[in-house]
Amino acid sequence: MKIFDEIESEVQSYARSFPRVFNRAKGEFMWDEEGRQYLDFLAGAGTLNYGHNNSIFKHALLKYIKSNGITHGLDLHTKAKGEFLQAFNDHILKPRNMEYMVQFTGPTGTNAVEAAMKIARNVTGQQNIVTFTNGFHGVSLGSLAATGNSHHRDAAGVSLVGTHRMPYDGYLGDNIDTTEYLDKVLSDSSSGINSPAAVIVETVQGEGGINAASIKWLQNLQTVCRKHNILLIVDDIQAGCGRTGDYFSFEEAGIEPDIITLSKSLGGYGLPFAVALIKAEFDVWKPGEHNGTFRGNNLAFVTAKAAIDHYWTNDQFSQEIKRKGQYVSERLENIVSQYGEGQFTAKGRGMFQGINCVNGDIAGKITHHAFQKGLIIETSGADDQVVKFLCPLVISDENLKKGIDIIEEAIREVCEKQDIPEKNLYFEAS
Questions:
Q1: Is the full-model pTM beyond 0.85?
Q2: Strand partners, 32
Q3: Which of 256, 241, 261 is nearest to 312 (CA)?
Q4: How does pLDDT run across 264-273, given as a tens digit for each residue?
Q5: Can you name the CATH fold of 3-53+315-417?
Q6: Per-residue pLDDT tens digits for 145-183
Q7: Would you list the DSSP string of 197-245?
């Protein structure tokens, strides 16, 4: 369709990598208007953990619409909101001994991050937020200030302030615990670092290149936060809702964030929905002090409840994710060993993994070849050098294997035609 070229903004991005007009989707598949089928390893950038048009959610949604259920509710009390809150409390929070107030923010992840940082500043009276290298938290100005990616930061048009960047786990090498550095500068009154209101962290950095923090590093980070009376915010917008195996990405570490942000797959069906989970003692908002017209997307409440009721009332789904994640790990390690020649590495955990290529050009060629073979998969990282596996969590074993087979074939073809350059040590001193 020429209409996209004629009047859609140049800001479009995914459409440039996958130049087709798509008109149908089901489960882990999408179809273009010519009827060609594509296996979807992008999954709405993590929004479609439960696949496209999940039949369970569709049934609940259609039933709600047919009954003239409320669609838009601002922050009014509605039956759909109440039922979601009850399900979330009964099946997500209570079984994990978690006690949080649920703030319904505007419907996207960046809205939740903005709210989290704002409430932290209100609680502590401090302005500074510690964030990490390669972190991505959104592109509204507050979230963007906490985001590392220069491509996005350069588009701000104004100075981005209120944050201080620290090295993420592994940024300075495998043997350096960067939380020790954070503790040091916070303990030194002459370090030049203003006392922060909070630390915001992704346990697995998605946009930043599938960088997974170790369990020990996350535990140490919480210790540092507690020592210095700093709130700990975990941005679980992409890594949460089962992506790493457990519902929350930090469960294995046993940490207790003060604030958690959720979005993307929270709504289940792909409908916009975001929340900030706030420990009760920090829920100091005045009525209407932070708001958003579309914080009452009742259709998303319905499908979110359906997702919890069907997938999260026991650990069966979690165990399935972990089993599939182990398969992905084994396949990626085998691929790297066979074709990487020491230049490719596997990264991530659970169903949130990727292949780190020598540079973005190689990764781009791999994903391009994969798309030609019927697989939609994106890249991430500072130079788009990581082939990012983000398929629906409900994908069948057969199609999971098929998708990875396509990537393996694409890597083999690219390696046969390409002189692999020397490894680019992105973050090491020259």
A1: yes
A2: 22
A3: 241
A4: 999 999 999 9
A5: Aspartate Aminotransferase, domain 1 (3.90.1150)
A6: 999 999 999 999 999 999 999 999 999 998 999 999 999
A7: SEEEE-SEETTTTSEEPPHHHHHHHHHHHHHTT-EEEEE-TTTTTTTTS
C-alpha span between 308 and 4 (Å, rounded)? 37
Residue type, 277: L
Distance CA 78, CA 57 (A): 19
Rounded Cα–Cα distance for residues 210 and 381 (Å): 7
The structure tokens listed for 366 are: 């791999």
Write out pLDDT tens, residues 331-373: 999 999 998 777 899 999 999 999 999 999 999 999 999 999 9
What CATH number does the domain located at 58-311 have? 3.40.640.10
From residue 215, give the alpha-carbon distance in Å to each of 56, 175, 218, 220, 251.
34, 14, 5, 9, 10
Residue 178 contacts residue 168 (beta carbons within 8 Å): yes
What is the predicted pLDDT for the residue at 419?
55
| Annotated domain spans of the chain | 3-53+315-417, 58-311
In the Cβ-directed half-sphere of 155, how many Cα atoms lie within 13 Å?
10
CB half-sphere exposure, 191, CA atoms < 13 A: 14
* pLDDT at residue number 241: 98
Low-confidence ranges of the chain (pLDDT < 50): 422-430
Helix axes 316-339, 397-417, angle to 10 degrees: 20
Please compute Rg for the chain using Cα positions: 21
Tokens standing for residue 73: 């509710």
- The sign one gets for the Cα dihedral 183, 381, 52, 70 is positive
Question: Residue 420: what pLDDT?
Answer: 52
32 torsion bin: left (phi>0), alpha (psi -120 to 50), beta (else): beta
